[in-house]
Amino acid sequence: MDDKTLIKKIRDGDRSAIKLLVENNKNLVWHIIISMVGNNSDCEDLFQEVFLQVFRGFRRFRADARISTWIGSITHHICVDYLRKKKKETIFRSHDNNQELMPGFSADMGWKQTENEDLNQVVLAAIARLPADYRKVITLYHLDEHSYQEIAEITGMPDGTVKSHISRGRNLLREMLITLVPDLAEILDDL
Amino acid sequence: MTQEQIKNNELDRMIHNALTSNNDLIVPPGLPDTTIRKLEKKVLLRELILELFIKVGFVLGSLTILAGVFVWINGSGVLTGLYIHFLNNWQIITSLLLLVFIAILIDQIGLRFYTTFKKEVSLKG
Predict the structure, then answer these.
(1) How do residues B5-62 score in pLDDT, each as one tens digit?
(2) CB–CB contact A124 B20 (8 Å)
(3) What residues of chain B have any CB closer than 8 angstroms to a CB in chain A?
(4) pTM over 0.90
(5) Contact A127 B19 (CB under 8 A)
(6) For residue B104, what pLDDT band results from cuts at 50, 70 and 90?
(7) Which of A172, A173, A171 is closest to B4 using CA atoms?
(8) Are the Cβ atoms of B11 and A174 closer than 8 angstroms?
(9) Residue A169, exposed/middle/buried by CB under 10 A (0-12, 13-18, 19+)?
């Protein structure tokens, strides 16, 4: 079902369209919430709040944007408000110290010998240490595969800022990964 | 493909794999259903309220037409008489109107809302 048909059905009060709307956008909403506020007990309330606001604001929605981008932008605003209220920035639920950050790793251990799971943990821990804005755009870019323009619309940042955040975030990640696992330099280090 | 592109692709792959492996990024089971139910309740409530307003509007419209017919037949003295009657018994008339309003609200919105969702829960359960 395309965006226009879905909007029309929701405006007409079609309950199956509401279900489709939530199902189609649940991952995007959840990813933005987790990357911005971290996994805590408020996330589920924020998730529901997003869709309630989407539902309330449907009459104001302009059909020239994609629904997912519009929903992403609402999610972003709700998370910003939440963080403002909490006056603190939380990060991914991860580990608190470097020992825990690197399960199964030691200085002389080659990355190829480690399990993929462990490498994923290291990358996740590195992502968790990125500044919030970088983490947010990297999650949207790599996990949800949004374009620079879509990320800009969701976050309200200019296109150029999104591009530079992704680039700087990736560079920071690369540096962190090489520091944590020196053998990764072989495949990640700049020429 | 240049050496730099290969390294970038490798980093892309690592980031993607790590993010998709993160359980925190998986939507908790049941959360979308709970959200859908909340939204469906809102839709139903809106429909019921709209329906109630239409019915009330229909009744008030009919009464206005009836009053117009009375005025047309008997002159405006009927309305003055009704007004005086209302002023003399305003407490009981207001109480009755309030009672009727609450009864309609419970019947048209409260009970219908409750029974619709109760029925859906028992069908799903």
Answers:
(1) 666 788 888 888 888 888 888 899 899 999 998 888 888 888 888 888 998 899 999 9
(2) no
(3) 3-4, 7-8, 10-12, 14-22, 24-28, 31-32, 34-36, 38-40, 42-43, 46-47
(4) no
(5) yes
(6) confident
(7) A171
(8) yes
(9) buried
Given the structure tokens 């008030």, which residue do they identify?
A: B60
DSSP H helical ranges for chain B: 3-21, 31-74, 77-88, 90-104, 112-124
Candidate from A34, A188, A191 with C-beta closest to B11: A188
- Where, residue-wise, is CATH 1.10.1740.10 in chain A? 3-86
- Report, as an integer, the average pLDDT of A170-174: 90
Q: What's the average model confidence in pLDDT over A170-186?
A: 85
Mean pLDDT of A21-48: 90
Say whether residue A128 is in contact with chain B using an 8 A CB cutoff.
no
CATH domain A3-86 topology: Rna Polymerase Sigma Factor; Chain: A (1.10.1740)
Query: Distance between CA atoms of B119 and B116, rounded to whole angstroms?
Result: 5
pLDDT digits (tens, 9 = 90+) for A73-90: 999 999 999 988 886 544
In which residue ranges of chain A is CATH 1.10.10.10 found?
98-188
Domain residue ranges of chain B, discontinuous segments joined by +? 29-124
As a residue count, chain B comes to 125
Where does residue A76 rank: exposed (0-12), middle (13-18), buried (19+ CB within 10 A)? buried
Locate the chain B residue with the closest alpha carbon to A30: B27
The CATH number corresponding to A98-188 among 3.40.50.720, 3.40.1260.10, 1.10.260.40, 1.10.10.10 equals 1.10.10.10
Q: What is the rounded average pLDDT of the residues B97-117? A: 85
